[in-house]
Amino acid sequence: MLRQDKARRIGEILDALYPEPPIPLDHVDPFTLLVSVMLSAQTTDKKVNQVTPQLFAEAPTPQAMAALPVERIREHIREVGLAPTKAKHLREAARLLVERHGGEVPADLEALEALPGVGHKTASVVMAQAFGVPAFPVDTHIHRLAARWGLSSGRNVAQTEKDLKRAFPEETWIRRHLQIIYFGREHCPARGHDLTRCPICSFAATKARIAAEAAGSTRPAGRPKR
Predict the structure, then answer these.
(1) What is the per-residue pLDDT across 191-220, written as a single tens digit (0 to 9) for each?
(2) Cβ distance 112 to 125 under 8 Å?
(3) Do 127 and 49 share a structural domain?
(4) Which of 45, 139, 165, 225 is flagged as catalytic?
(5) Is 139 an active-site residue?
(6) 56 shares a domain with 89
(7) Closest Cα to residue 170, out of 145, 139, 133?
(8) Would the pTM count as exceeding 0.85?
């Protein structure tokens, strides 16, 4: 099956399953979205949504966040991964938003990436979800499924992003990003997954891929891969 035909069929299935995929991180504006995405690295969305209400009650704007001591921010987010580093990044990013951008989150990818703790994926999420600018942020779910489905070589996330942007029409990128995340969580786990029964893997994955993953799942515990 040609890659474009495969992508079209995958898109039809994803649209049927998730016609209007919600943004999993609770937020009310571009700043609270930016903070939530920054916190989500190595942390579940559920945990982020649990800690942000108290943080946003005290610091809902860049001005308020920049005015908080790092220790106070860390106290609010202590349950998320890498909390000490993220607290420093949040305060410094907020300070720079005030100094450079008048206290507003810029609708500019390069300006976002220039903020502490904001990488390409985080900036892309904000551009797509806060400003509606077509982007295809690649997280771990998307990276592994793109390779599993034969839509990308899977060498690195940058290559995966390029491959997915070529595979899917630009007007679908924003929802495809969310749809693939949800599909990975709910239907297509990394381990113990029967590709032959999956509504997408069953036709998108190659026979070699299906055999390789089946072999990996049946390898005795402790036996090294060759």
Answers:
(1) 999 999 999 999 999 998 999 998 876 444
(2) no
(3) yes
(4) 139
(5) yes
(6) yes
(7) 133
(8) yes
